[in-house]
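Suppose you are handed a protein chain with no further information: no name, no annotation, nothing but its sequence. What can you learn? This example shows the usual starting point.
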Amino acid sequence: MNLLPNAPIGIFDSGIGGLTIASAIHRIMPKESLIYYGDTAHMPYGDKSAELIESYSLHISNYLYEKGCKLIVIACNTASAHAFKSVQKNMKGKVAVINVIDPTVSAVSQQFAKGKVGVIGTRGTINSGIYSRKIKKNNKYLTVTSLATPLLAPMIEEGFFNNNISRTIIHSYLSKKSLAEIDALILACTHYPLIKNEVKSFYKKNTKIFDSAEMVALAVKQYLNQAQLEAAEDNFADLQFYVSDYTESFEKSTKFFFGKEIKLKKT
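A reasonable first move is to predict its three-dimensional structure. Written in structure tokens, the prediction is:
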């Protein structure tokens, strides 16, 4: 691999969810250039087949590699569950790939010696069983209970969060018996940090809430440091955003996360 330190970091998700990770990376490493790809034409990934998700992910990762990215971040739990190994294999010898699941699993496994961990995410992520398998492999004393929450990502994608509609739907899911008396809850979808405060208010500090944004950003920083690929201090951070289909909510969300007007480029 002949990669340049000032080259951009490539990040992709099915929609706006991965912007939580992109903004965390930008906050922690403001000198890094980013290329974000939102596959809005195929959102949500959660109800797609594993084969289709793998196909989308391979196509997008190739696109980001051709754009000269020095690292690829799969900022989507469903794609991380179903396509990480394929993307990693496809990029072997070219560029490293980081998924959103492993940093989160590592943090939960280390912070809790024992207890009950809840996981909420899309049907695709939950049906894969990947969080349960990985957590138990890391810490056999943790019990894992999972619940598919398919309405949440589309709800957030349409801008419905921090209001009565979102609270009603969130409370309906979190009230399920399977999530009773949990010590920690993993928000296993990169859209979900946008409703983190609403989830916290439901549990009233009795449950630790984990979202992947900061943990993935720190994993990215650690990798770049070890690979000696951190951008120079005088590097101008160029932020580029691509979508497979234009949506108004995506444009509004980029402004919300990055505090300025972002020009979307449609592929």
